Structure formats: C-alpha cells, structure tokens
Amino acid sequence: MSRSHPSLHRGFEKGREIIGVNSLVQHLVTEHHSEDWVDVEFEAERNKLTQIQRDMEKRLEREREEACIMVPKLPANCQTCQVSIGLHKLWRYHVLAHKFGEVYCSSCNTCILGHHYQEHSAICNKEDKDRVRVKVEKFRGEPWFDSEGKKMKISFEMNTSKELGRHSVAKTIVFGNRFVRGTGSTHDEALRTLREEIESILTEAKRKVEEDRKEELEKEDKEKLLELFRKLAAVDKENEGNVYSLEVGGRVVDVRTRLYHTKAGKCKIMASAVYSNQFLFALGDNRLHSVQLLAEKVAELHKINPEKEQSQDNKEFACTDCSSRFKRKRTLELHQTQPCKI
Known about the structure:
alpha+beta, Herpes Virus-1, Double Stranded RNA Binding Domain, four-stranded antiparallel sheet, three-stranded antiparallel sheet, 8 helices, 16 strands, 43% helix, 25% strand, elongated
C-alpha cells in the first residue's frame, strides 16, 4: 500500500467528494491491510479524513433541515417567541436561530448562526471590516441613523399592497437629496432592511472616495517627480563650463560642487574645499549660493588660523571630496579617477 500524501485531504475539504474518498480509504484498510504493515503518518491522515467526513455529513444534514423549513403565509408570528415576521429570508433565519443559536462576530460586528460561525470566521476578511457601520439612536423620542457623526432622520409609515399585504416602510435621506426606503412586516423589520441599504450605499461611496483620493495622490507624486527632474536638468545646465575657486591669503583653493540630497528629501548643492588641513563644505540652493556660504566659512577659519605659504618641498595635494592628502599631483589625479566617499 502506498503512503498517503500529507496534504491529501486539503483539496476535498470544501467538496462532498471527501465522503467518497474516506470510504475508499476505509475499504483499503479493512480489505487490503496486512498486519505487518504500520505507517503512523497514514493513520494520522486517515483520522483527519474521518473527522472531515463527519463534519461534512453534519453540514449536509443541516442543509437538508434548512431546505425543509416550511414558510407560512407572511406576515406571521413565530410559534416560539410570537415575533411577527414578514419576509421569507428572515423567517428561515429566525427558525434556525432558535435551533442553533447566534454568535456575535467582533470582526464584522454581525450576528452569525451558530452552525455557520466556524465557516464564517474563516472567510471574514478585510472587506467586511471596511464596511461602513450605521448606529440607530434615539433623539427626542425619534429614531436617527448615526454614521461617523453624520445624522439621518428616520420616518415610518404603514402601506398596503397585494404582494406584501399591510407592511411598514422606513424612510430616510442620505447625502442630502437621495431618498432611501426599507420595507418589512413591522417597524423593526423595516428599520433593519433600511439600515442594511444605508450601510451598502455609504460603503460604496467611501470606496469611491478612496479610489479618487488614490488617483489624486498618484497625480501629485507624478508632478513632484517631474519637478525633481526639472531641477536636476537645471543643475546640469548650470554646471556646464563653470569652475569655482577661492583666493585666500594669496593662494588659490579649488572648490568642487555636487548634487546633495538632505534627509528631508530636499535637493541641495554642496560646495566643498580643503583649507588649512580641514575639510569644509556648505549647502546652498544653487552652485553660486553654496560657494558663497563656503567662502564665508573659509574666511572665518583664515581669521582664526591664517595659513602660511608652504614650501615647494612640503607642498601637499588634497582631494576635495574625501579630504585625502597626497604628495604628488599625479597621485591625486589617479585617485580622482575613482569615486570616493566623504
């Protein structure tokens, strides 16, 4: 007998074929099993299949019970609690609630039939959580809807029709000009129907606003990106053919400039130079501005510690990017052929 795959039962969990598969496994065990063959994993899989079959049989039995519920001519009173019910769907739900009970789902704020809760908890997802919830509140003795601080007054009236007989109609106005109605055999039933309709309308409106906002943010990001490219293009154009240097104490100090991004995401120009064995830099909105700020720093340093003329023998060459120092100019030029970090 071949070994059972660890995930054999997973493909059948949601289908009635599991009953047939389990029957086949039981047949193999009872008719073709040898006493000297033992497989612990196979036994574990067989027990899972048996449990799944039992759950499936219970589910099918409940589906048959639900299908056999006799719905009287509505509106009618429940024989157990004498509550008046006017809709076929609510009648079936009411009968099943008496038999299996209800469980409150805290994820979607909804009451679920007890025998459906396990399945519901597996599929209750973010879509249910995104649904706009509406509360019913009393204000001066009259019912109002409350949705995130927005109030909607509710009114009732009794109507008569051939299809529904005498029934209640709950009405309200949403968005200031849209009339919404809900019907039921009683005021409470009509209010429940109207509440579900209002929640669906507000949820759809919320989803549309979020989609529009998303498109607006994408458009803003695109504009910011284009603006950044424009600034970079302007910087590149400004850099063409411009070389800056500072003259301090009769000596020329080379200045290098490059693009610099701050932690805040802003685009700046950094001017840097090495003077008196110190690396100095300044940030500006453009090359000229950054060089001017750098010149002020060099001037302050020169006042504190004037740099004396170095003899030709002691002369050194410094990299303005990383402040590395070299004895020969050729060595500096070779160093500058490779990128260096500050």
